[in-house]
Design a protein that fits this description.
binds glutamic acid, seven-stranded mixed sheet, binds 4'-deoxy-4'-aminopyridoxal-5'-phosphate, Aspartate Aminotransferase, domain 1, Aspartate Aminotransferase, domain 2, 15% strand, globular
Length: 377
């Protein structure tokens, strides 16, 4: 048989999904595994959102819709961006995709030519590199100083004639760090001076604890060269709905739209009606979840620090990023095999020596997990 695609053979499996699958398999075998490996809110989707989706289904919203999204949703997103993220956005600058991940992939396909370089700031989430690779681009890594988890001028050393795009993810998965104004401005100045596109993944924007979230596109003229990625998975506990979106310059959205039309066509029609209710409805549910994450965050960081572990600044998202002694793969295996706690080794995020623990689990589970980690060391 002829060999399959060399391009895909060179792409790694998603470590976050692989570890979560392993934990689920152990659970099915009857092992009491506490899974802190995947970043998924443990809350159910708020009732008014599921109700709106059910009503849409019963109304017959089961047909194809405009491929960039139903106008009610693209309109609500444009309104939200203009008001909350503080840069102008029209519905024509919005594309609703099958999850933020799909939007990221489409953006890479739309922007990159073979060999175009894209800077990934590490530690970084697992899917940026594969999306760039599949699109034919070349990932270039820039490690952030773990003492501050902010950017400095050393970033400029990564830039050359081939640099096409930079990906920024604040609040960050996996570190939980939130970029301050200075870091964001550094990226904005760089992009404007050197004619570079930016992708700003702001999916954790609602999960910030005592810090201000800054949208990259709100700085200077950055809206003209930034693709802002967001979605419903985290803020509204809608991971399984597979709904995300991108907003950006119309020319880029038009190209992303072609990728979407020839692959998934559109996001699910009735699911989009749920998302309209999410954006237009009462936002108290978002704040309630944020407060609960904050409570868990404080508990978990205190426990880990009391056990002697150093942690990254846990200012956003729902991850504790922990510096461990020894090999992170070995430590994570020990926690899973002996302590039955699933966590993601930092190596998956280009940060060997660290481990990511999600605190999007009940307080009861977190307390038990901390006991187990203390026991197995
Ligand atoms: N970006 C980041 C940083 C994430 O952690 C996730 C989590 N899956 C995503 C994007 C994608 O989210 P989704 O596809 O579920 O909308
Ligand atoms: N983003 C989450 C995580 O990092 C969900 C899994 C994934 O899509 O990678 O765990």
């Amino acid at each position: 048989m002829k060999p399959l695609s060399a391009k895909i053979a060179g792409v790694a499996e998603s470590a976050t999904i692989a570890i979560s699958n392993k934990a689920k398999k152990m659970q099915r075998e009857g092992i009491d595994v506490i899974s802190l490996s995947i970043g998924e809110p443990d809350f159910d989707t708020p009732r008014h959102i599921t109700d709106a989706c059910i009503t849409a289904l019963n109304r017959g919203e089961t047909h194809y819709a405009p491929s960039n999204g139903i106008p009610e949703l693209t309109g609500a997103i444009a309104e939200k961006i203009t008001k909350e993220n503080k840069f102008p956005c029209t519905p024509q600058q919005v594309i609703v995709a099958c999850g933020a991940k799909d939007a990221i992939y489409e953006a890479c396909e739309a922007v990159l030519n073979p060999g175009d370089e894209t800077i990934i700031l590490t530690p970084a989430w697992v899917s940026y590199e594969p999306c760039i690779q599949i699109a034919g681009g070349k990932p270039v890594f820039h490690a952030i100083n773990p003492k501050t988890f902010q950017l400095d001028d050393s970033l400029l050393e990564r830039v050359n004639r081939k640099t096409k795009m930079i990906i920024v993810n604040s609040p960050s998965n996996p570190t939980g760090a939130v970029f301050n104004k200075k870091s964001m401005q550094l990226v904005a100045d760089l992009c404007e001076d050197r004619d570079i596109y930016a992708m700003s993944d702001e999916i954790y924007e609602k999960m910030v604890y005592g810090k201000e979230h800054i949208s990259l596109a709100s700085l200077g003229d950055m809206a003209q060269r930034t693709i802002t990625i967001n979605g419903f998975s985290k803020a509204y506990a809608m991971t399984g709905w597979r709904l995300g979106y991108a907003v950006g310059p119309k020319e880029i959205i038009t190209e992303m739209s072609k990728v979407q039309q020839h692959s998934v066509s559109q996001a699910t029609t009735f699911a989009m009606w749920g998302a309209v209710a999410a954006l237009k409805g009462d936002q108290r549910c978002v704040e309630e979840m944020r407060k609960e994450f904050d409570r868990r965050r404080i508990y978990m960081i205190n426990e880990l620090n009391a056990m002697g572990y150093e942690t990254a600044p846990a200012e956003g998202a729902f991850y504790a990023f922990v510096k461990v002694k020894g090999d992170d793969m070995e430590v994570a295996s020990r926690w899973l095999d002996k302590g039955h706690v699933a966590a993601t080794p930092g190596s998956a995020f280009y940060a060997p020596g660290w481990i990511r623990l999600s605190y999007a689990a009940s307080m009861e589970k977190l307390k038990e997990a901390m006991k187990r980690i203390k026991r197995v060391g």
